[in-house]
């Protein structure tokens, strides 16, 4: 006779409880650690924990609450979370207490991004798809391997969750559904170097011959990074975040863990040509923000800097080096295709996650918020 599991209890966690839970996990998103709430002052952050009847903490999530203008109602957002047993056959046991708690907190809608892989494409499969003029989107390419995210989507739909519509810039875009990751686990540095394409290996050698030096920076170097980042934003036509955002990120993340965030700078003859931030949580390392100048591109500072970051991630014992978001579009006319080529050239796999999902607790306010976001 099978016994029905007792309901899970959900309650707020202290930072110490949340961090202890994260430390026991092989991989947790940097957007699901307590300090990420300090990076987002426009949101109210709360750490939540799921407890078994015997008092064991078995799940955790960072929820960000954003008020609907002129009301005391909130959009509740768990970016790339929560960190729960997504394979559990009784997923309602996990998600129903979450919805009940957030409804009591005044949430009119809940958005989450299950950190569950749906599909993966090898670098070779992506390169072949880019070269095929008949292939227009990554989602139409047969996957090299599939994960539990495909089945999870159907389960969430049956429970009343809706897949979030992809948006434009800013919050509406949410966290990336498609990312590029270089696997590091059980691979030597030589293996990883052999996984780079010929152009990458050539560019790294060229940077070394030209005398490009990659150095670790500190908070005092953030204005230098920002100057390059602002130039990149103008060149690539996106709206840059302000300098205080990066300063706040550095302060918050490194206060939580001294090696949670790193800054790398590419120097050449007294000139800083490129810079990038790197985030570290357990065995997962992310390339977060990158910036470069148009000057002296021929000395290939970006390849040299990324290779140094990958080497450092490997030295840390990381299982994956995550290049973050990539485009799903394989059209030559898409200005983001070059970035996809760059990341896949480093031996990166294309990875599709389950995507972001909404549960409207108040359909009228949920619709009103969608309209508000669309008008911004």
Automatic annotation (TrEMBL):
One Pfam family, short name: FemAB
Signal peptide feature range: none
Keywords, comma-separated and alphabetical: Acyltransferase, Cell shape, Cell wall biogenesis/degradation, Peptidoglycan synthesis, Transferase
Domain of life: Bacteria
Family matches, as InterPro entries: Acyl_CoA_acyltransferase, FEMABX, PG_Glycine_Bridge_Synth
Gene3D superfamilies: 3.40.630.30
Family: Belongs to the FemABX family.
Protein name, entry field: Peptidoglycan bridge formation glycyltransferase FemA/FemB family protein
Organism, scientific name: Streptomyces argyrophylli
Lineage: Bacteria, Bacillati, Actinomycetota, Actinomycetes, Kitasatosporales
């Amino acid at each position: 006779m099978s016994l029905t599991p007792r309901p899970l209890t959900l309650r707020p966690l202290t930072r110490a409880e949340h961090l202890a839970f994260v430390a026991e996990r092989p991989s947790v998103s940097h957007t699901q650690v307590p300090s990420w709430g300090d990076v987002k002052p426009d949101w109210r952050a709360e750490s939540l924990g799921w407890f078994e009847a015997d008092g064991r903490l078995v799940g955790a999530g960072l929820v960000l609450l954003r008020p609907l203008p002129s009301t005391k109602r909130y959009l509740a957002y768990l970016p790339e979370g929560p960190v729960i047993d997504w394979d559990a056959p009784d997923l309602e046991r996990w998600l129903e207490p979450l919805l009940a708690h957030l409804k009591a907190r005044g949430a009119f809608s809940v958005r989450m991004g299950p950190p569950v892989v749906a599909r993966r494409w090898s670098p070779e499969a992506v390169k072949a798809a880019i070269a095929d003029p008949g292939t227009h989107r990554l989602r139409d390419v047969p996957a090299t391997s599939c994960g539990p995210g495909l089945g999870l989507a159907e389960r969430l739909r049956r429970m009343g969750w809706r897949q979030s519509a992809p948006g434009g810039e800013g919050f509406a875009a949410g966290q990336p559904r498609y990312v590029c990751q270089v696997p590091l686990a059980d691979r030597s540095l030589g293996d990883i170097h052999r996984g780079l394409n010929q152009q990458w290996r050539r560019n790294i050698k060229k940077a070394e011959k030209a005398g490009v030096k990659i150095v670790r920076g500190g908070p005092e170097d953030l204005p230098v990074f920002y100057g390059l980042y602002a130039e990149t934003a103008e060149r690539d036509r996106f709206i840059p975040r302000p300098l205080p955002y990066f300063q706040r990120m550095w302060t918050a993340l490194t206060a939580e863990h001294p090696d949670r965030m790193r800054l790398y700078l590419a120097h050449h003859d007294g000139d800083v040509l490129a810079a990038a931030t790197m985030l570290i949580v357990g065995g997962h390392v992310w390339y977060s923000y990158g910036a470069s100048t148009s000057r002296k591109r021929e000395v290939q500072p970006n390849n040299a800097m990324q290779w140094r970051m990958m080497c450092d991630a490997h030295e840390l014992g990381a299982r994956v080096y995550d290049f973050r978001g990539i485009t799903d579009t394989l059209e030559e006319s898409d200005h983001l295709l070059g970035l996809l080529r760059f990341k896949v050239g480093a031996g990166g796999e294309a990875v599709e996650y389950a995507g972001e999902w909404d549960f409207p607790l108040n359909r009228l306010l949920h619709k009103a918020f969608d309209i508000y976001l669309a008008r911004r």
